């Protein structure tokens, strides 16, 4: 009898502990999914959110029932504000950008959104690194809905998601950390999914712009565009075809009447110079041509619900001077790869035809204007190099040094296919 009583007490204690963990995770809500309560000083600052963003965002999309979404990489996450009057015409919005997201994960998250929400408008950022078939890639690491989802599969997905959000020890620890760290200075992510611009700026000012620029420039040359020691690039190899992934996104958007706008981001000229030294300019041009071909293949001549915008190039924003002293803020950039939300606002105004949109910033690409756009961009590049010869030389030399080291110490990617 004593053993039975002991077992009963142990079982009740265990169940009570599990119930307490579930209640804590649901109420504290460290990933901002349930939103049962959001109280300043208790759980309004989601200080543990960033490491779990990939887990959180599918559930946030489903529970939020948003009509417009931004999906993409850290450039979307950090640079594209949801609060924009021109884009707001589509309804309630959310930024589903994720640090390091590749094209396959963007496809999976978009498909999930189509299945579980009321999305009408989607904005997706595209970058050269997303289309290199030699770069590591993989399906979305957490449960997401697919177009062929059955009721049984949906039940399993929702069960597994709830287990991760409510029962896992890592989320319980995230809840505890959230309770401990309610300092607004630690508020990294806004309620609309966008990173906190004030927090980002504070970190950049602390690090210094020159340090940040060099970090991202060197990283992109070393592993960002290609992990291979010979810096190889290909849109497809063997069974891997990144353009097929892009076509799947297009087909899903067309089949479900979702207005989709893609944009090529406005990276800083310093990164463009290093990209040229890395021998990737021809691939950047080819990418734009191939993207237009895919759009034409899926949509034909009826392209009113799809657009490809190009904000790259040597325009005046991309030439913003990089402060060499600490404490001086840039207006348009956080580093060589990430633009500020101030510039993101201007991009949204252009893409969604705000009355006050800037006329000479960004261009909607088409088969009819691509050659002239590319010619103009290359002319601007040559003009920049002529007027900034020392800066251009230094950037090319630094990129060349990284490539030499990469050739010795980089990843051997095997035979080309």
Report on this model:
There is one protein chain. This protein has helices at residues 2-28, 53-64, 74-79, 103-116, 151-167, 169-180, 197-207, 209-224, 242-255, 269-277, 281-299, 341-351, 370-387, 389-409, and strands at 68-71, 93-95, 121-125, 236-237, 240-241, 259-264, 306-310, 363-364. With 417 residues, the chain is an alpha/beta fold. It has a single domain (2-409), classed as Rossmann fold (3-Layer(aba) Sandwich). The mean pLDDT is 95.
Provide the helix percentage: 40-55%
Largest β sheet strand count, sense and barrel closure: 6 strands, mixed
What is the number of strand segments? 8
* Helix/sheet category: alpha/beta
SSE topology string: HHEHEHEHHHHEEHEHHEHEHH
Number of domains: 1
CATH class: Alpha Beta
Distance between the termini: 71 Å
- Across the major sheet, the strand order is 2-1-3-6-7-8
CATH fold-level label: Rossmann fold
CATH superfamily: SGNH hydrolase
Tell me what portion of residues adopts beta-strand conformation.
Answer: 5-15%
CATH architecture: 3-Layer(aba) Sandwich
Average pLDDT score: 95
Low-confidence stretches: none
Task: Briefly say what this structure is.
The protein has 417 residues and is an alpha/beta fold.
How are the SSEs ordered, and which strands pair?
Layout: H1 2-28, H2 53-64, E1 68-71, H3 74-79, E2 93-95, H4 103-116, E3 121-125, H5 151-167, H6 169-180, H7 197-207, H8 209-224, E4 236-237, E5 240-241, H9 242-255, E6 259-264, H10 269-277, H11 281-299, E7 306-310, H12 341-351, E8 363-364, H13 370-387, H14 389-409
Parallel strand pairs: 1-2, 1-3, 3-6, 6-7
Antiparallel strand pairs: 4-5, 7-8
